[in-house]
Design goal:
Layout lengths: L2 H17 L17 E4 L4 E3 L7 E7 L4 H16 L5 E7 L4 H11 L5 E3 L5 H4 L7 E5 L5 E6 L7 H12 L1
Parallel strand pairs: 3-4, 4-5
Antiparallel strand pairs: 1-2, 1-5, 3-6, 6-7
């Protein structure tokens, strides 16, 4: 092995060792999800850490985002088919007007909780790269799944995935 390659390897090893034990500053799969407290559009307070014991589906979205609007009916279907005492779905509105979300929800019959983050402080904790993004948090509060982009949430694949976490 060349000396330069050996030095590079040692540098990489020392950097990885020094990073061990540090808590990441954004949501990371396998680690406790960042806590937040937000109000939904009906005035109810939601604190993520208070939902331990339930599987939590957190979706970041906006009404100006076409893929977000496209996936919302499938989210509502998923929300309706799973037991409310074991599963919570929270749709966090990002960089949007709450009135737009209210109108959108009313027009489509959306009943899942829509939370408003007026300071847009929760998204950065989750390392958002765009919308929509969805995070599945297990009963212990650990982030288990991260999905970038829209999905057909009521498809058998996703229903089975969520039920797996509910049954753990």
């Amino acid at each position: 092995m060349k000396l330069s390659s050996l030095l590079f390897l040692l540098l990489c090893l020392s950097l990885s060792i020094s990073a061990c034990g540090e808590v990441p500053n954004v949501a990371t799969v396998g680690i406790t999800a960042p806590d937040f407290t937000l109000l939904d559009r009906k005035g109810n307070t939601w604190t993520l850490s208070e939902l331990k014991g339930q599987v939590v589906f957190v979706n970041f979205w906006a009404t100006w985002c076409p893929p977000c609007k496209e996936e919302m009916p499938s989210m509502q279907n998923l929300y309706s088919m799973l037991p409310q005492d074991k599963f919570k779905m929270l749709a966090i509105l990002q960089n949007d007007k709450p009135e737009s979300a209210d109108s959108f929800a009313e027009n489509l019959g959306i009943t899942l909780p829509i939370l408003y983050d007026p300071s847009n402080s929760v998204g950065p904790k989750y390392g958002l790269t765009g919308l929509p993004e969805t995070f599945i948090i297990d009963k212990d509060g650990r982030l288990r799944e991260k999905f970038i982009g829209p999905a057909q949430w009521d498809s058998p694949k996703f229903v089975q995935l969520i039920r797996k976490y509910i049954d753990e």
